Each structure stands twice: as structure tokens, then as C-alpha cells.
Amino acid sequence: MEEEEKQSSGARRRWLVDAARWRPSPAQFQAAASLLPPHERTAITRFVREDDRKRALVSRLLQYSLVHHVLGIPLHQIRINRTLEGKPYLQNKNGTFPGFNFNTSHQGNYVGIASEPLCLVGLDIACISKPQGETALEFIKNFASHLTYHEWNCIVSSGSPDEMLAEFYRYWCLKEAFVKATGVGVGFGLQRLEFHHTNWTDIFLSIDGEEVRKWRFWLFKIDEMYMASIARGHPEDAIDSFKRTLSDVVVQEEELQGALDIPEEAFTIWTVEQLLRLHD
């Protein structure tokens, strides 16, 4: 049993890259992009802004590097596709971790990835940026329809404008992590989700007023401006288009409960140069 848990933890990864520190020349950018399959390189070129292209490249490098590192699949054999809703998934079937799945996020300086051997996993990165041309409260009001009455009250009573912004982004980050984990994307009504917590620990979710017991949530402070959230939950809650990408494995309730209750660990910080060396 201990050996199984050790192997399982080997498929649980939390990687983070500060993409702002990577300033490649055009030739270096092309050399990094050449490590990816042609369809991924084509997808990157669709981004107009240079920063967006760089984040898209780093995100894809993270995905292929992680799959290669965790599952040992040769890089040229890795097949990553996306559902109609845009959620990436691994097409290759593997007997070691048939429930393996991952999720990526990028915002501002950072690009991240999280993987799980059994639970669904969602990752979101948020930047607590001050709004331009409007107050913090005016900015938050733009998203009021996606918040519950309880969440709105918690935000507006949290203190100063900076504290309100941080509180808003915590709720928003958690909502995003959940919908990304399930694969449903923007089609899910975020106002149906209501988060509760004790000083942002012991976080739990209610959907349409009912507590959801087969999910766990965590928040991490990356630096003074950035935060990340992780959602882990039951594979049965995946949207159909994503559920079809997962192996048809019966999940034992005890096994799932054990996986849900594993504490979250800090992110491993990578440089782009280190990721590129994984491809050697």
C-alpha cells in the first residue's frame, strides 16, 4: 500500500514558471517551439501579442515536459488534445495511472500546471491588479452577477480597497479552478458556486445551496501580486466531453477519500531553461 501511495504521489505535480524572466531572442523562441508538435506550434502563432505567444509556448512546454517526466512517454509519442470546451487532456493511454489528468493556467508573469493520478484537478492563477479608471468597488461590481449574496458581503466588508480586491480574487480564483477541473469552462454559471472558509483554510463549496463533499480546495500566495488555487474532486463530476477522455476505471470511495485528503504541497519552481533541458 505504501508503495502504491509513493507511486501515486509521483504523478501529483505542481509546477510553476516565472515566464517574465525568460527573454528569448527570435532564434531561441523558434528553437524552443521546435520541440513541440506542428499543431502546437501553429496554435502559438495565432497569438498576436509577443507576451501571449511566450506564455502559450511555456504552457505547452510545461504540459509535454510534465507528461514525459511523470509517465516516461517519449516526447515524440506524447499526444495532447483539447475538448470542445478547450480543456487539454492526454490522448495516450497508460496503465500506471489510468486516471491521470492535468490542468494549466497562466496570468501575467506566471505559467503553471498541476496533475493528479486519480482526482480531477483544476488550477487557476490570479493577479491582484489594481483597476484603471475606476475604484476597486466599481471594478468588483462588474462581476457581481457571478457572486453569491454571501460572497459579495464578505468582499465588501473585508476592509480597505486593496483588501476588497484581494478577497474578490480569492473567490474568483477558486471558482475558476473548479470549472477548469470539471472541464465545463465558461458555460457554467459561476453564481451557482458559493465558497465558505475559515480564514481561507478548510475551504468548502456549495452548489445551488448544497455542500459538495467530494471536492477539496486550496489557496497559495505566490508573491505580493499573484495567487494560485487548486481544486481536487471526484472524476464523476467531469463534463461529458472530458469524462470521455478518462479511462473507464471504477473509483473506490476509500481510495478517492484518501486522495482528496492528501495535503497540498508548495509549487516546484522551474525556469524555462530547465524545462528545455528535460527535452534533451
UniProtKB/TrEMBL annotation:
EC number(s) from the headed UniProt entry: 2.7.8.7
Main enzyme class: transferase
Any single GO BP term: lysine biosynthetic process via aminoadipic acid
GO MF annotation terms: holo-[acyl-carrier-protein] synthase activity; magnesium ion binding
Domain (4'-phosphopantetheinyl transferase) ranges: 121-225
Ranges of residues in domain 4'-phosphopantetheinyl transferase N-terminal: 21-117
Keywords from the named record: Transferase
InterPro entries, per the entry: 4-PPantetheinyl_Trfase_dom, 4-PPantetheinyl_Trfase_dom_sf, AASDHPPT_N, P-Pant_transferase_sf
A Pfam family recorded for this sequence: AASDHPPT_N
GO-annotated cellular components: cytosol
Protein name: holo-[acyl-carrier-protein] synthase
Lineage of producing organism: Eukaryota, Viridiplantae, Streptophyta, Embryophyta, Tracheophyta
